[in-house]
Protein 1
Amino acid sequence: MAGGLREHLVAYFEEQHKLVEAGALQLILTQNQPLVLSRELVERVGADSPFVTREIVEAALAQRRPARAVGGDLASEVPATVRLAPTVPFELLREGFTGPPVATQPIAAYEALFQSRFRQLARLLRGRPQLPNLCPVKELRAFDGGASVIGMVREVRETPQRHHLILTVDDESGSLEVLVPRDSPGSRTTFLPDEVVGLHLQFAKGPGKLPRVAAVERPDVPHTRAVGRSPAGVRAIFLSDLHVGSRSFLSESWGHLVDFLRGEGPNPELAATIDHVVVAGDLVDGIGIYPRQERDLAIADVVEQYAELGRRFRELPDRLTIVTIPGNHDAVCPAEPQPALPANVSHGWPTNVRILSNPSTFALHGVVIQAYHGRSFDDLIPALPGASYARPTDVMKRMLQMRHLAPIYGDRTPLAPLPQDGLVIDPAPDILVTGHAHTFGVDRYRGVLLLNASTWQAETEYQRMRNISPVPARAAVVDLATLGLAAFDFSGRAPVILGAGA
Ligand SMILES: [Fe+2]
């Protein structure tokens, strides 16, 4: 790790009135989540000591050993402390944004990003029985029974006559071209640029023949894994895309939500069990996000938009923990992972609001939730046959299969060249929540609850132009003990329960 992150950490410990030993700092810098670990260490040391020693770091790391999967082939990588502590209301597991880029040359910075992606995802694939005789690309040989490689997809093209696919994949040792026969099982799922896949290969006899892909193995969510469940009677409500400051912000519907959460609407018994609110980005409408946006704004000053949002949050009961991430309309760098909102826009917010980066993974009472705004829908929907903004949860399944939220580089989703790829989905969550599509979607995939969390903005002229039909003022209330949910429509005078189920 280079100097930028080191200085960032030293400054953080100083801010917390802690002196960090050189050996301790060195050890922290070698970990996957140095910022999250640093926060844990400060909490762990508390007021007991002004020092963070190497022994303290080692003790903290020892407690972070992975939980054991229940009969699974892959362990979920969630720290054991979380799995063992369903009574802890909130635990931050991973923020996508891990500090500013450390390389000074853009090419080196992006190289580091893609190496990080490859290493994180290859770690999930290595050791699987579906990938026998696994070897680096450079050492690939024609084993009896075939051999396997793990590669990042660089290019996909079709043979002109028979429409087989030719994939070019890279690993850290080199590049390889392989043939995916048309109509073979491996060709059924579209290969996306820059996703990481495991390929089991068979070798054809004859000079110049490409190895054939006999099977494709994606990182995916294990069928069996440790699943977080809270104690009975704890619920969370999921929202997204508030767009406060827009003329189209649905103030009246928001009022119905506030009444409901205060127990002043129908279902006060249910409302009283909601302890958490998760908001998946686009907290405000922002400024200059799309051409002539000023015509759509009720509040033209972005700082004032956030102040208004603070007032809206204060309307909610203060027993709630409100977890927020930014989206592409918010006042942070649009490249993903996005940092958490800065204090100069959120300073007046109530203290029960947690301000995290986009994406972020956290546990609510032991239930692991990944919140991602969903900007990559703009790239994945055109790239995946049959995908649409009306069914974002289909795209979210594909994200889980790839274990990546935004694999495509160089299109609409700008990627920040951070040394660690914070868009890798690791650990696999119990709930994946997104926004951005301004629709409402619920689905399940291998035990993961998928939510696209609607919007609190009516249709804008810009959306009409882009053929996006919003489904606003919906919210899912999820029972964290069972992951069963009740879906509400707050657009009318009284919230309507749209459906409930496990
Ligand atoms: Fe939005």
Note: The chain is about 25% helix and 20% strand.
Protein 2
Amino acid sequence: MPHAPIPPPPSTDAAHHGLRSDIDWAAVAQELHGLNLITTPRQRRQLSRDFYWYSPILTEQLADCTADLVVRPSTEAEVRRIAAVAARHRLPLTVRGGGTGNYGQCVPLVGGLVLDTTEMLRVLDIQSGRCTVQAGARLHDIELAVRETGQALRMWPSTWRVATVAGFIAGGFGGVGSTTHGVLRDSGNLLRCRVVTVEDPPQLIELHGDEIQQVHHAYGTNGIITEVELALSPAVDWVHVIALFPRYRQVLDCAQACGGGAVHCFLLSAVDARFAPYYAPLAAHFPHDASRHALFAMVAPDSLAAFGEQVAAHGGQVSLSMSEPELEAAALPPAYECAYNHTTLQVLKSDRGYSYLQVAYPQPFEPALVERQMARWEAHCPGEVWQHQEFARMHGADATFGLVLVRWRGAERMYELVADIEADGCTIFDPHALTIEDGGMKTIDGAQIAFKRRADPLGLMNPGKTRGWTPAMARTAEDA
Ligand SMILES: Cc1cc2nc3c(=O)[nH]c(=O)nc-3n(C[C@H](O)[C@H](O)[C@H](O)COP(=O)(O)OP(=O)(O)OC[C@H]3O[C@@H](n4cnc5c(N)ncnc54)[C@H](O)[C@@H]3O)c2cc1C
């Protein structure tokens, strides 16, 4: 069976990326004296990792990538000092937030300096409809602060207890809340950010509104985000609901009927029955005999009746309906930890024999397509692919994304499956690829590269993560 082109392995050689490898690290450390420097090999190694281990391909490729030095600033002034030192010494510089990215986004391919932002954690200001925070503030901490004012974040990744706001902007896409508010790229969600350039002396650039697209999902290749202003919405005490259905098609139909604002939901996540045994604490609500498929949802209290009507109309039954404090008291996980890439995580925690693919379906979404794919795969490769779809909004329209679990049978088989899914008109956001372009974006973003010329004129930032910077990197997988 033909397979899609497998992205070539990355080069971990500094010279390949136009960078020096003869760096005098003792002199660098001296110039950074007084800052919070991390030098022990074990910590450097730990702070050079993210969740790339979801991919056996990346696990092999990134095993030896380790920072030479890690620095943890707590103010923008310290970031500027670090940026100037990086420019003077021509240091490869990789910014790291919580390190929860899935594709080795913050892994320093050629070593060098890792700038860890997690001490830049202050919530600076909260106003009606907006808040300003330092880049390394964790999203859950920001939520706790803004909740005090009756407001809430519009969206966050299911990793929000660890993930930082700038990591979400530079590495993420959307997440819990995207059912209501669309994705990060949608106008009005990101209001302003401050970016420090890597040159000597560093400049400070303020980006407003849609200008932020220049650094959004750019994997920290074009400037160091130091401060972010986010839009807020009125807080809702979401009810976490599980509804069970005998057939997967019913889950998809129900989620589609509830989406697009028809029912006020913050999360709508369809999960294949085969995941159930991995959701141990939920045995009473998502049966471990894999007899029922599940819809995990976060529903506004005043929409519970409408949600229940849709569930019943599609042949399902609500098996759990609790507020977050009630879930906590019952030691049950919130719905969002059963959704997005937490669904994959539940399985991988106990069985590393799986990996996954990210799928964007043609719009308008047709549940029949997933039903056909399920039937095809169950006929030819039973048990190899388990279904999981997220129902969101993007650019003002409904958007459905799959994070399908795949039994690992080697890279060739994974890319056969990619070709198979693409033949159905779907787009793969490849979680086994290291560059922005081979992952989700598919083409080099000229605006982001133009901004890189301004914010990282020496090409030091996160080398090897964009195909847009050097001619060697610009070659496509087919050329390689
Ligand atoms: C279980 C699980 C669930 C997930 N769910 C979601 C989800 O729902 N939605 C989603 O979008 N993602 C999701 N992710 C991916 C990831 O958790 C999020 O994108 C998260 O927001 C990344 O934040 P972080 O602080 O961990 O970033 P990191 O992983 O530390 O960094 C991500 C990227 O941002 C860059 N970066 C970090 N800080 C800065 C800065 N200050 N300036 C410039 N660049 C910077 C880094 O260089 C890197 O390229 C999930 C991952 C896992 C493991």
Note: Residues 5 and 477 are 6 Å apart (CA to CA).
